[in-house]
Design brief:
25 strands, 3 domains, OB fold (Dihydrolipoamide Acetyltransferase, E2P), 16% helix, five-stranded mixed β-barrel, Histone H3 K4-specific methyltransferase SET7/9 N-terminal domain, disordered N terminus, 5 helices
């Protein structure tokens, strides 16, 4: 009997040993997997704002070893913490950057670069407001002190406007032939011969005094400040001076206007422009000279109508000082409840905001079919880009208070 007990004890001990070994192996595997998962949720990356770049560690959602989704970045020296959303390893959308001196920067990124309005806040008060275009400061730059605006200047492509205009090389035929314009901001002047619109862009053809015909397009509809230019609301016959880059060895085949159809013209990348001569009674130029982004549009507005679209409310308003039939603008605001308008007809709003292109309402199809396009060419249509649009200056609202209204 004692021998049988010893055998049973040995068997039981062996089974227990195997069980304990299996548990230890399983525990080690779990720890290893957890460690691997923890390692997979961190990555050494670099972010930048303006001309400053920081190296540090990202912690958050990952996919295939790249930051994707919500996460946090902490710089190596701990001086900067950034909370935001990443896409394909790059910052995308709303971000908040906190500095060691207590300053907080709130704004948006696109493809890893600052894009749109950024507010710099310290001790609860806004100290600076900056607009960015593909990482470069552009548009209106404002400095605040004790809650009041102290300084303001207009920047284009990261450069103060007066400096840009001083450094611009006047374009000449010799300059063009010798290609000394390459990489330089140049200025050209001439007459606007054609202006056309589609849902997002404006197309212009200008007969310049220096290099003949040039052609360019730029975003002037809402939704993409990155490719906008600070240009007046031009019409055919205007005399203008345009600052920008003449693109080397590139011409665009013009198929958007009757007189330019089938011709190739020099391509131009505009940054800034101004009217050098206006037709009589051009009140629209005086009231809203620039339908672009980054220019302040603070004021009192009265709501006339509204449209809910894609989680936004677009308010058709007039300035309080304007008459009932003039001065219409469109305010773009966030909507928490898409089924319930936040602001109603008749509301009087005190608005802080910036021009953000134009709000366009199409009275025809946004895109013409090929057959419709050719038919338009044959009948000699003046504007066959994409149809007819009613256009209003679009204001991106940064803050709004209801002065009067039933809510």
């Amino acid at each position: 009997m004692s021998g049988q007990k010893r055998v049973s004890i040995r068997i039981a001990g062996g089974v227990c040993g195997i069980f304990l070994f299996a548990c230890a192996a399983l525990l080690m595997r779990v720890r290893t997997e957890n460690a691997a998962m923890a390692a997979a949720s961190t990555k050494k990356i670099r972010i930048s704002l303006e001309e400053t770049s920081w190296a540090g560690q990202y912690t958050g959602d990952m996919d295939a070893g790249m930051p994707v989704g919500e996460g946090q970045f902490v710089s190596e020296d701990g001086s900067v913490v950034c909370d935001g959303t990443w896409k394909d390893g790059k910052l995308e959308g709303a971000v908040e950057i906190r500095y060691s001196d207590g300053t907080v920067a709130q704004g948006t990124f696109h493809k890893g670069k600052a894009d749109g309005l950024f507010r710099f806040i310290k001790q609860g008060s806004v100290t600076e407001e900056k607009f960015f275009c593909k990482g470069a400061q552009c548009g209106c730059y404002s400095v605040y002190e004790d809650g009041l605006q102290k300084e303001q200047e207009l920047l284009v492509n990261g450069m103060p406007l007066p400096e840009l205009m001083d450094q611009a090389v006047p374009m000449t035929r010799r300059c063009y032939e010798e290609k000394t314009y390459l990489g330089q901001v140049v200025s050209v002047s001439g007459e606007v011969l054609y202006v056309g619109q589609d849902k997002e862009e404006c197309y212009c053809r200008i007969r310049t005094e220096e290099v003949g015909m040039i052609y360019f397009s730029y975003v002037n509809g809402n939704g993409d400040g990155a490719d906008q230019a600070i240009l007046p609301n031009m019409t055919s016959g205007d005399r203008v001076r345009i600052y920008g880059y003449l693109l080397p060895d590139r011409k665009d085949l013009i198929v958007n206007d009757m007189k330019g159809y089938g011709n190739s013209y020099l391509s131009f990348l505009p940054l800034y422009g101004e009217l050098s001569q206006e037709e009589p009674n051009r009140e629209n130029h005086e009231r809203y000279p620039y339908h672009s982004y980054g220019l302040p549009a603070d004021g009192i507005y009265i709501v006339q109508d509204s449209v809910l679209r894609d989680g936004m409310q677009f308010l058709f308003c007039r300035r309080q000082e304007e008459t009932e039939t003039s001065g219409f603008v469109v305010l773009e605001t966030d909507v928490d409840d898409i089924e319930r308008p936040v602001y109603l007809e008749g509301d009087v709003l005190e608005v802080e905001g910036y021009y953000n292109g134009q709000y366009k309402e199409s009275s025809q199809a946004d895109i013409l079919s090929l057959s419709s396009f050719m038919a338009a060419v044959q009948r000699g249509a003046d504007d066959i880009v994409a149809g007819n649009y009613s256009m209003y200056p679009l204001i991106l609202v940064s803050d709004v208070q209801v002065q009067q209204g039933d809510h």
